[in-house]
Predict the structure.
Amino acid sequence: MDPVATIVWIVSFVLVTVTVTGLSRRVGWSSPVVLVAVGAVASFIPGVPHIEIEPELVLYGLLPPLLFAAAIQTSFVDVRARRDGILLLSVGLVIFTVIAVGFATWLVVPTLTLAAAFAFGAVVAPTDTVAVSAIAGRLHLPRRLVTVLEGESLLNDATALVALNATIAAIVSVVNPWAIAGDFVLAVVVGVAVGLAVGFVLAAIRKQLRAPVLDTSLGLITPYLAFIPAQFLHGSGFLAVVVAALFLGYRSPTIQTAEARIAETINWRTIQFLLENAVFLFIGLELSGILRSAFSSGITVPQTIMISAVVLLTLFLARLLWMVLTTTVYRYGPERLRERGWNWPTGIAVSFAGIRGVVTLAAVFLLPKETPHREFLQFLAFIVVVATLLEGLALPWIIRRLKLPPPDFAQEASEMQRLLAEAQTAGLGHLDGQVTGDEDERVLVRLRINAAFLSDALENPSQDESEDVAVEYQRLRRSMIKAERQAVLQARSEGRYQEPAVRSVLAFLDAEESALKSSGPRKPLM
């Protein structure tokens, strides 16, 4: 394909991704499922180029920035508070799934070796960060549940890929179980160490940068700065990326300027949106090629249906059984566990959130040529991805039946306002210590009025049933900003001011409007 045609297809790919995602959200459909369906249909249309998947490119080129984008927006405080539950899912459940699915696949797929069956179990074991984030973002899930699911999907890739490497080695040679355990420990220790080292070094460097462009440029290559050395040292590059992102996200208020933090947030949200949704379209586009390979494997259609049903049932039951066991331990174990554990409704919700995605599809192509029924296993992995995405559609109904409480957005807004008032009170105290007596009194009055407004509104709320004072202020100020922006644009159209002045005023209004939006009541994602 010539360069111009390649660019045209890339632009078309992005355009379809954005259009389908936007329309799906508008009508309330699951965009991952719709994107997979659109890609699957397109894969059979003549003229649509067949995309040959390069698993190394996906795993080592696409996954690090996706993991980083998800992890840097994840609360380190929440992950630390739920670390025991996250580890149970990201390590314990992955190992349990590898064993359960491995044995089930070995029993139902003719002539499949046990090593190849365990390799397939490792392929389908990890939940997918992209899929989980996309599904969880549409639902009003409890914060605790979202933290556990996202933490699991961020960390279980490392466990699954270490298990996959071990089983691949067993396919082509004889391996020592103790060596497998040693490789896993090495991958975890090196991954965490490299992630922390990269985080510390980059935090020190970024603290010295004052240009947002330089800071953002460094941030864009951070996933690979963590991933490459960890892989080179035989550690888990994915774990290194997650650790570095969590560390830098936690330290960002003290090492970055406000402009850099805003720019980084917008950049990574954009990257995450484009990559995560493009991944699902890409999964669908693989269908025709995977089907052609599967039909040549010699396994009949009735056998395929039976094998797919057994694998999917085992995958679901393994997750459900693990959640029953861990929830039982949490509910009836030592007091420390009872205080930190989850209840039965949460455990059931987690059981139905085992969504697979790009990691599974890319990992199955890493199976060596010597793997028995390699093409059929690739098709089976595709079935698992699509089926678990469809399973995710049931989550809203399950959440409603379990009566899990949605996030209390009103309480979160109230806490935000109280914290902001506390911060502004601290600012007033600092201002009083900085005053020398030479300042213009109008400046001091303006600063004190602005800082004391929210505290006064909280301490002296309106007695009637009208809207909250802070919310009323935000609504009216936004309306004023809209009128002010129109006045600036009118002045520009009349040519009364030079363009630098116009751009500066518009940027000032944009910054204030963005601040008002950030301090306003949080609304559920659609």
Observations:
- The chain has a mean pLDDT of 81.
- The radius of gyration is 26 Å.
- Residues 119 and 167 are 5 Å apart (CA to CA).
